[in-house]
Amino acid sequence: MDKSYFLEILHKFQQGDVTKEEFQFLVTYYNLYDDEPDILALLNEKQKEKLRSDMQIAIWQNIQRYEQKKIKGRFTKLAMIKMAAAVILPVAIVAIAFMLNRQSAVQAKDIVQSNKHKEHQVLRLPDGSTVIISAGSKLNYSSSFGDISKREVYLEGQAYFDISHNASKPFIVHTGKIETTVLGTAFDIKAWPANADVIVTVIRGKVKVEDQYKILGIITPNQQITFNKKEAKAIQKTIDTRPYLAWKEQDLFFDDVTVAEAAKLLEDRFNVRIYFKDESISSKRFTTTFMKDETLEQVLNSICEFNNASYQYDKVKARVTISPK
């Protein structure tokens, strides 16, 4: 394929001055774009990111322009070409954007975590965020968030998210047609496929909830949005979050988490602060199950036994200090 010829035809296409054969050449080229990945090697990461942004702008400009314009009468050849350009160009742009995104994330793999345990499961995401997924739930996410512009996960069921702050990479939870976007916060989502409602509850921070058409609401701590999937209606209200979070206080299965990640959850559950005298302890990993009726002391004993550590618990100050033995 002569790429210089393609670029020449593409320029003519943008001016609305291509023959039927040249137009077909462009369509064929984009259909075969997947077989020309070496083009991507010509762009650096900054250029790719700019291209993605320009593509999104072009798509919406074309959509808005041609939705507002009513075409009447017979078309000239040039008008027909311009109409085709308005339809095909956004499609081609989307195809390129898809390829660029796929190329930048080529090293990452999708992870599908299905919680088949009877206990709720604690997960650590690649960015350090912590998620508790309820029994029977499923979470799909990338093995790496490093080379992509946003952190995206896909949830079926119920999960509690405690998200690491990263202003440059929004965190998005997809639940069917609903998207919940955050920068750094703690929130709960209940989105069972068989249930009529998707419920988003914020414990800390701020989240934006939207469907494919509009923003349903922006909610802050102790607020909740309930979206009825059948009626496509959303209700926003202020609530007491405790009843909606009671489920995560049940038995917990910790799957290959660090001591620091476990400590963060224990701080919330037992209303204490946990400190480490040595960072080598906080980074150690372990797998175990904590039962809902275990006391803080029982849990700490288990953690320290797993990781060759000891602890001191000041009940008056609600402070725990973990040290290496």
Q: Give the overall form.
A: globular
Low-confidence stretches: 30-44, 54-64, 70-75, 98-108
CATH classification class of the largest domain: Mainly Beta
Return the CATH topology of the largest domain. Answer: Jelly Rolls
Number of domains: 3
The biggest beta sheet is recorded as: 15 strands, mixed
**Helical content (DSSP H or I, runs of 4+):** 25-40%
Q: So, CATH architecture of the largest domain?
A: Sandwich
Q: Total number of β-strand segments?
A: 18
Cα-atom Rg, whole angstroms? 26 Å
Order of secondary-structure elements: HHHHEEEEEEEEEEEEEHEHEHEHEE
How much strand? 25-35%
- Straight-line distance between termini: 67 Å
In short:
The chain contains eight helices and 18 strands. It is of the alpha+beta class and 325 residues long. The strands form two sheets. It has a 15-stranded mixed β-sheet that branches. It has a three-stranded mixed β-sheet with strand order 15-18-17.
Furnish the topology, listing elements before pairings:
Layout (H helix, E strand, L loop, with lengths): L2 H12 L5 H12 L13 H24 L8 H28 L5 E5 L5 E5 L5 E4 L4 E5 L8 E12 L8 E5 L2 E5 L3 E6 L5 E8 L2 E4 L4 E5 L3 E6 L4 E6 L3 H4 L6 E7 H12 L2 E4 L2 H4 L2 E6 L5 H11 L2 E6 L4 E6 L1
Parallel strand pairs: 2-14, 5-6, 15-18
Antiparallel strand pairs: 1-4, 2-3, 3-5, 4-5, 5-8, 6-7, 7-10, 8-9, 9-12, 10-11, 12-13, 14-16, 17-18
Helix pairs in contact: 1-2, 3-4
